[in-house]
Amino acid sequence: MPAKPKLGQHFLHDVEAIEHIAASIGDMSGRTVVEIGPGQGAITAALVARAAHVVAIEYDHDLALQMRIAHPPSQLTVVEQDVLQFDFAAAQAEFSPGERLLVVGNLPYYITSQILLRLAASHTALDRAVLMVQREVADRCTAQPGSRDYGLLSVTVQMFGPAQRIFTLPPGAFTPPPEVYSTVFRWRFASRFAELGVEEQNFQHLVRQAFAQKRKTLANNLRAAGFTPDAVAAALSAAHIDPQARAESLPVDSFAALWHGLNREQRSEISEQ
After folding, report:
1. pLDDT of residue 272
2. Is-contact 104 21, C-beta < 8 A?
3. Measured between alpha carbons, how far is 140 from 109 in angstroms, rounded to an integer?
4. What architecture is the 5-191 domain classified under in CATH?
5. 103: three-class secondary structure by DSSP
6. Do 58 and 36 contact (CB within 8 A), yes or no?
7. CATH number of the structural domain 195-272
8. pTM of the model
9. Which of 98, 108, 226, 267 has the most crowded Cβ, counting Cβ within 10 A?
10. SS (H, E, C) 119-151
């Protein structure tokens, strides 16, 4: 079945890569695996052979029908839906009560970021994911502080658990070949918000402010966001952050310390008014 460019379809045909992806999720015997964008079902077959049950989210009606014919419902449930509308928590309750879901996906490039945010929002229902994305996106998801690729996406992903690159594939591994290289990475869901004592929404807002202008220092970005110079200086000092530091140099723990420091300074300023 030919690919539909408007859906960002690029079908993986590299047999070795398919087996590597299936192996990278780890032991899935007795487990339920959710596959995002199964396409022609190459990875699906490898998952069905290893897992207790596979839930495939496929937006394309023709491909969904093809998979229903290829695999019995006892092995595979096909959900014909946009993944951005899929309820992972409900799927866990139905197919894997008491145990979090595994996720595998060759993500459409044009909605990769939205899917990653959807997975992050569903983290309590998820154990780990093995995802294929554009190489540059994987570089950003797995980047470490101080590297060229470290930024807002890095912190956002890693606050929900560690992300690790596995391998990269050339365009020729797909039909039709995309214009970019693709990288597979593993994401283990272990939210750090409670551990670090930060409130999720406010913390993410602070990180967006910190990375607003990557060429500017962290202090300048925070002042531009409306924090007073005194509050910024005090919070940086309390968090043991160099006043000339840029956001891309800060590990997640330092962002948390900065968040706490700014909250203290804001409360202090309000009490003095």
Report:
1. 54
2. yes
3. 14
4. 3-Layer(aba) Sandwich (3.40)
5. strand
6. no
7. 1.10.8.100
8. 0.91
9. 108
10. HHHCHHHEEEEEEEEEHHHHHHHHCCCCCCCCC
